[in-house]
Amino acid sequence: MDYDKLNSMTKYPEIKTYHKMGEKGRLQPELSTELDPYLMYHVSEKVDGTNTRMIFIVDDCDFDYFLGSREELLSAKGDRIYNSSQDIVSNLSEPALSLAENLFYRNNVRDGVYTFYSELYGGKLPATKQYSTSKEYAFRLFDINYLSFEEFEHLCTLPRDKIANWRDNGGQTFLNTDDRIEMCRVLNLKSVPFKENIFGREIPTDIKETYEFMQAYRTTKAGIDCEGGRAEGVVIRSDSRKEIVKLRFEDYERTLGIKRK
Description:
Layout: H1 3-10, E1 16-17, E2 19-21, E3 27-31, E4 40-46, E5 50-58, E6 63-69, E7 73-76, H2 88-105, E8 112-122, E9 137-147, H3 149-156, H4 160-168, H5 177-186, E10 194-199, H6 207-214, E11 233-238, E12 244-248, H7 249-256
Parallel strand pairs: 1-12
Antiparallel strand pairs: 2-3, 4-10, 4-11, 5-6, 5-8, 6-7, 8-9, 11-12
Helix pairs in contact: 1-4, 6-7
């Protein structure tokens, strides 16, 4: 197996900021993505941690799995790869093995390649105090990608630049909201906290009004062993995932000249 190709086809695509990002990290009045005023959008908390990937290759005979950061693969079943970067491997190895076995032994799980995207947070990371007083680590799942074996084998025949082009132009297939929630339920996984469903017309387009709108989501619901911490922001997506944007408190406060207390 070409690990570089697997790494490329399972990388998580960039999520744009709702308002376009300008110089010195300040938001611009223009939107990066126009939201449909009549469409319902799913609002979830953006947890402040490290992006991780758990990649599972499952068929009738066996299973394989890999762990990765946002940019690179860090570990694989049988210690074929090992990189201790960012405490990802030490915290996710046991959950990954348990999940791989769970997927393999479930009769209703299709053969193929699953990539579980999660946020590892707490521990030694900068925002730990918002989630944990004991510096404990936890992870929350925020997306699941599925590849059939036919598509996976086809991608493996392509050069890496073609795979990157496929990925960057929306080639990946993600589970919809209901299927992702159901997958979390049957596998006993915690997802990033759901906030609410909201019509596009209810989301302001002005920077100051958007910041005021975000105040309802100020407190994190992802506390590990404490409550009342600050959320990093929210992610807003359509069920088809055609539109997905992030709104971070820090970006709006920097732009508006608001100092955090």
